[in-house]
Structures are given as C-alpha cells and as structure tokens.
Amino acid sequence: MSAEAASLYSRKNPFPAPLAVNRKLSGEGSEKDTRHFELSLTDSGLKYEVGDSLGVFAKNDPALVDDIIRALHATGDEIVPGCDAGVTKPLREALLTDYQITQPSKQFVQAVAERGGEATAFLRELHDPLRKGDLEEYLWGLEYIDFLIDHPSIHFTSEEFAKLLRKLQPRLYSIASSQKVHSEAVHLTIAVVRYESHGRARKGVASTYLAERVGSDDRVSIFVHTAKGFRPPEDGNTPIIMIGPGTGIAPFRAYLQERKATGAKGKNWLFFGEQRAQHDFLYEDEFKQYQAEGLLTKFDTAFSRDQAHKIYVQNRMLENAAEIWKWIDADGAQIFVCGDAQRMAKDVDAALHKIIETEGGKSPEEAAAYVEELKKAKRYKRDVY
Ligand SMILES: Cc1cc2nc3c(=O)[nH]c(=O)nc-3n(C[C@H](O)[C@H](O)[C@H](O)COP(=O)(O)OP(=O)(O)OC[C@H]3O[C@@H](n4cnc5c(N)ncnc54)[C@H](O)[C@@H]3O)c2cc1C
Ligand SMILES: NC(=O)c1ccc[n+]([C@@H]2O[C@H](COP(=O)([O-])OP(=O)(O)OC[C@H]3O[C@@H](n4cnc5c(N)ncnc54)[C@H](OP(=O)(O)O)[C@@H]3O)[C@@H](O)[C@H]2O)c1
C-alpha cells in the first residue's frame, strides 16, 4: 500500500479492522474481566507510535436495542434521523450504530420530567439549578430503558425519541504494542465494564462490544489517536519510571517492546498493581521474561487484595523513595503514569511530592515547584482516564 493510501483512514474514515485475538487475561476466580485484543492493520497503511491510543467506534448491544424498541411500542422499521445531518434510517439501525442509548441525555430527562405529570413532579424539582448534585445522584446508574419502562404513560414517537439522543462517541484505548515489533497489528488491554444498577445487568458499550459481540467476519471501525505528549524519551539512554496499575499497564507493555526493539540502553522501572497476584497479574510471563533478560531493571508489584490491608503502587513507590529520588534527580529519569484518573493518579502524584520532600529535603512548596519543573521539562507525563 502506498504512502498516499496511508492517509485514507482517519477518525472521519475509520479502518474496518478484523479482530484477530480476544483473550482473557484475568484468570479463573478473578472479580474482573480484563482482556487482550489484537486488531489486524493489514492493508490499512495505519501507523502508530507507542503512547498513542486507538479510537474504536462500537455498536450497541442488540438486546438493549430490542428492549428499547419494545418499550417505545415501535417495530424498529420506523424511519428516524441518524446522527449525521440529513441522513435518515430505520430506528433499529440508528439505535445500533448512531446513538448513545445507555446513560440518558439532559434533553431526554427533561422531556420525561415535563411529560410525566404528577409522577415526575420530583424530577421537575430536581431540575432546579440549586439541586444539580441531587439530580446527578438520582441519575447515577439509570438508563433510557429504565425511564421508558417506569413511565409507560409517557409516549415518545420513534422520531421524537431519536431526536433526544446524543451521538455515540468512539472510545479510546491505550495502544499496548509497538509497531516496530507488530508491524501489521495493534494490541489493546481492556477491562470489560459490566455492573448491575436498579436491578438490571448493564454493559459498557465498547468494552462488551469487543469482548462479546464482534464475530470473526465482522470488522471493527478504528482510528489512531496520536498522543505526542505521552511518548517515551527520544534518547534511549534516558531512564524511565512507569506507573501503570490495572489497564494502565497497556502503554508500558508497548514502551518495553519498543525499548527492546530499538536496543535502548536506558534503565526501565515498572510499578504494576492489581487485585490479586493469582488471577490478575496481567502479562505476568512477559514482564517476568523482561526482568530475567534485564530489560526491566526494576519491577515492583502491588496486589491490593492479597492481604488484609490494601497495598497500592504508591505504597511501593514510598518504600523505594530513596532510589526513585536518585533515578529522578541524579539520573534524569522520566516518570509516566497511566490508568485510573479519579483515585490512583492523584494518590501517585501525592506520593511523588512526598518522595521529593523527604528524599530531596524540600518543603511542600519546593516539592510542588520541583514537580512543576518536571512537567515543564516533559519528564512527568500522564495518560489517565
Ligand atoms: C486516553 C484514554 C485511554 C484509555 N485506555 C484504556 C485502556 O487501555 N483500557 C481500558 O480498559 N480503558 C481505557 N480507557 C477507557 C475507555 O475509553 C472506556 O471509557 C472504557 O472502556 C469504558 O467504555 P465502555 O464503552 O465499555 O463503557 P461505557 O458504555 O462508556 O460505560 C461506562 C459508564 O458506565 C457507567 N458506570 C460504570 N460503572 C458503573 C457502576 N458501577 N454503577 C453505575 N454506573 C456505572 C458510568 O457512567 C461510566 O461512565 C481509556 C480512556 C482514555 C480517555
Ligand atoms: N465500571 C466498572 O465496573 C469498573 C471496574 C473497574 C474499573 N473501572 C474503571 O476503569 C478504569 C481502569 O480500571 P482497571 O480495571 O484498569 O483497574 P483499577 O480499577 O484502576 O484497579 C487496578 C488496581 O488499582 C488499585 N487501586 C484502587 N484505588 C487505588 C488508588 N487510589 N491508588 C492506587 N491504586 C488503586 C485497585 O485496588 P482495589 O480495587 O483493590 O482497591 C487495583 O489493585 C478506572 O477508571 C476505573 O475507575 C470501572
């Protein structure tokens, strides 16, 4: 395929990729379902760098689509607007491919509140701007289907309903492979989202699409999302400290493949955390092999549920404070963090400040200034979600 053709595929024109591998990484007995996926890039001309993410356009769960059609008292053949301007299509197709059909839009909730009479008076009250938090709390875990079933007296035509929906957005996944090693493939590490709320089993759209619904003849619409701010150092001699609990491990698998392929001489230190060593040690064999080869200079794990009290990656960082400080301050290491944004990334950041304070003999303000300098020098990079 020519270089010109390489530019054919983009977010606007995604590549239809076969899903070559869908393998469970979580072992028997795990509370999680984290999987390794490989998509074929053959004939796509797509290029990616380690640190980049892959965009995936998923399709909704047909069982949920059927439930919604039934609750609307529709057949699915009704012609409705699609998400692209001027395009119309049958309701079933629009619900499968065009629209977010799980967490409800503000417009939809507002329409339910307005049309429900006495039964939705409480919902109208929750729309008071002063009660934003209460409304959010009420909506947590509720989906379109719950409102349709719980308020059968409110009627939406198929067209009205479609017009209240938001566009289904692609999901991003950190790329878990180096193209220097896998020239025709892209690897992903994905935690499949399944939970129960209000008595119903729920499914994350894209993670369950890849895990459960893509068949061998299907194609997954993908694009490369470049992340120049999350690249490993250009100079292979620069040491790197990688902190990636859970699926945050994905880009670091790619970094290590790349550092090995390019013969980079810099030291590599990986912190990985998950629930239990026995079931949740993602890519255990690969990382232990890298450690045995000496590619992984240091490898620390934190299995949070293997003992009575929680142990997290930041605990391991603090246990190694003096050496981390040496890697950063004396050796010029770069620090990378990937994974959960809400809790983990904040706590890891706090641990980094603490290490700089205690080992560098700095006040909290001086440590904060030091971290700012690291960020400015592009030596502290995060890809958190
Ligand atoms: C740059 C970037 C990189 C990423 N990399 C990865 C990666 O490598 N691996 C990975 O697995 N993910 C990654 N993600 C996250 C990924 O993009 C998706 O957000 C994730 O897979 C969930 O998508 P989904 O479509 O399966 O679920 P969705 O359909 O989006 O459902 C998730 C939503 O369900 C609701 N929800 C979830 N749990 C509950 C609950 N218990 N109770 C009530 N409601 C709940 C919440 O509203 C939540 O937002 C990344 C995100 C970004 C931005
Ligand atoms: N909707 C869902 O069902 C669901 C399920 C899992 C994750 N998620 C979300 O998906 C993303 C990635 O999840 P993931 O599966 O990759 O792994 P994760 O949930 O981030 O868990 C990975 C490891 O991090 C630990 N952890 C929890 N809190 C932490 C903290 N404050 N600091 C450091 N480590 C911490 C976990 O321990 P413990 O779990 O033992 O506390 C676990 O050992 C996150 O954004 C998460 O919020 C959603």
Describe the structure.
With 385 residues, this protein is an alpha/beta fold. It has 3 domains: 3-57 and 170-225, Elongation Factor Tu (Ef-tu), domain 3; 62-167, NADPH-cytochrome p450 Reductase, Chain A, domain 3 (Up-down Bundle), CATH 1.20.990; 230-384, Rossmann fold (3-Layer(aba) Sandwich). It is 36% helix and 22% strand. The strands form 6 sheets. A 5-stranded parallel sheet has the order 16-15-14-17-18, sandwiched between helices. A hairpin with a 6-residue loop joins strand 5 (79-81) and strand 6 (88-90). Helix 2 runs parallel beside helix 7 and helix 13 (313-319) packs parallel to helix 15 (344-360). The model is unreliable at 1-5 (pLDDT under 50). It binds flavin-adenine dinucleotide and NADP nicotinamide-adenine-dinucleotide phosphate. Flavin-adenine dinucleotide (FAD) binds at residues 53, 102-103, 140-141, 171-174, 189-191, 193, 195, 197, 204-207, 247, 250, 383, 385.
Brief description of this entry?
By secondary structure, the protein is of the alpha/beta class.
How is this fold's topology laid out?
Layout lengths: L2 H4 L8 E3 L1 E6 L9 E7 L12 E5 L4 H10 L7 E3 L6 E3 H7 L1 E2 L5 H10 L5 H6 L5 H8 L4 H7 L7 H6 L2 E2 L3 E4 L10 E7 L2 E4 L2 E4 L1 H9 L6 E6 L14 E4 L6 H12 L6 E7 L2 H4 L3 H10 L4 E6 L9 H7 L1 H10 L3 E6 L4 H17 L3 H13 L3 E5 L1
Parallel strand pairs: 14-15, 14-17, 15-16, 17-18
Antiparallel strand pairs: 1-13, 2-3, 3-10, 4-9, 4-13, 5-6, 7-8, 11-12
Helix pairs in contact: 2-3, 2-7, 13-15, 14-15, 15-16
The chain binds flavin-adenine dinucleotide and NADP nicotinamide-adenine-dinucleotide phosphate.
NADP nicotinamide-adenine-dinucleotide phosphate (NAP) binds next to strand 15, helix 13 and helix 15.
